[in-house]
Amino acid sequence: MNKHTKLFVAFLFVVLVILVIATISFSVDISKNSAVSQEDSLSETVSSDGRQIFQGDNGMFGLEDANGNTLIDAQWEHLQFLTVDYLAATTETEDGERIGVLDLDGNIAAPFVYQEIQTLLSSYYVASLADSDQYVLYDSAFRVLESTVWDDYTCEDTGVTLTKDEDVFYFTSSDDGLALTEIALSRTSGEGAYEVDWADADASLLSVEEWSCTADMMQQLLAMILSDDFTSLTQITDQNHEESILASASQEDHTVLRFDRTAYVSVSKTEEGTVIATWQIDASVHLDKATPEKQTITVTMKKNKQQVLVVTELQFA
Q1: Among 13-27, 173-187, 278-292, 296-310, which is the least confidently predicted range?
Q2: Residue 22 phi/psi, 5° resolution?
Q3: How far apart are CA 216 and CA 263, in angstroms?
Q4: Which of 123, 126, 164, 225 is least surrounded, with the fewest CB atoms within 10 Å of its CB?
Q5: Measuring CA to CA, which residue among 126, 124, 81, 127 is closest to residue 104?
Q6: How many whole angstroms from its chain centre is CA 78?
Q7: What is the pLDDT of residue 68?
Q8: pTM of the model
């Protein structure tokens, strides 16, 4: 075998080795992709304990156990596992197709009012209402988060940002679940608007509804002070504090002209476990006939015996 023949044989051998490696690699990739596709399919139709979604003779879908015993009759247009214990189900209603959630016994865990249910941060779910551009958040046991219907949401690696009307709430994700860590509130008062800056406040001391409630009460109180009309004061306070608040707010020599564009709020808890929300906002106040001066309005809010937040104190300083 001459030199050129040896080189040609060596070249053919190298080409053959490359082709074998490429063929094996391609086969492995195809196998992996098939396995992934099969796993994705099984994750939606078969649970880890062998329960599986089946299609009946009527074309509808139901659920059966590993032995083929029917757990949920085939009466749903579509079924899909959301967790080991819950399924997303689609049915036809008077208003069109709607999605809800069933447990493994066929009980309704979330009502059939949604157009889509998506996984959020692995153990939470966001359901979009079919009749409005709003959202409801559920935990892994399909309990509603914060009992609030949200206008919008943004999901991030570290948590989720939720908006409701003028308010924004940021929840941080941890092993213990979602924790409220930041808020952004804004309200209008008279002809102006003010943003809320919060400091020295543990946002989780109040729920989303309570945070919004304190902002609403502050807005109502400031509107009363500007208009000097306190007929609605009973809506934000109780009988124990109404008289003192009215005395502070309606002083004859005080005329509030306008408020600053920033209000400040802090929340703390006493040793007895009482949560106190303290609001402050600067105002331009006309005293008698003198030149207007700047004063700080401080408003204190606590929960009454019925655990409802009310205004308990008002001060000008």
Answers
A1: 13-27
A2: -65, -40
A3: 13
A4: 123
A5: 81
A6: 27
A7: 92
A8: 0.75
Q: Would you place residue 250 in the very low, low, confident or very high pLDDT band (cuts 50, 70, 90)?
A: confident
**What is the biggest distance separating any 2 CA atoms in the chain, rounded to whole angstroms?**
119
State the CB neighbour count (10 A cutoff) for residue 75.
Answer: 14
Based on DSSP, count helices (H) and strands (E) in the chain, helices before strands: 3, 19
Where is 227: in which H helix or E strand? helix 208-227
Percent composition of the chain: helix, strand, coil (DSSP 3-state, to 5): 25, 45, 30
* Mean per-residue pLDDT over the chain, rounded: 82
For residue 192, what pLDDT is reported? 62
- What tokens appear for 61 in the block? 């879908």
Per-residue pLDDT tens digits for 86-128? 999 999 999 899 999 999 999 999 999 999 999 888 789 999 9
Tokens of 239: 């009988």
User: Half-sphere exposure of 12 toward its Cβ, with a 13 Å CA cutoff?
Assistant: 6
Place of tokens 């999901």: 155
| Exposure b/e, 113-150, CB count within 10 A at least 16 = b | bbeebeebbeebbbbbbbeeeebbbbebebeebbebeb
Q: Which helix (H) or strand (E) holds 160?
A: strand 159-164
Average pLDDT over residues 179-206: 79
Residue 264 CB neighbour total at 10 angstroms: 18
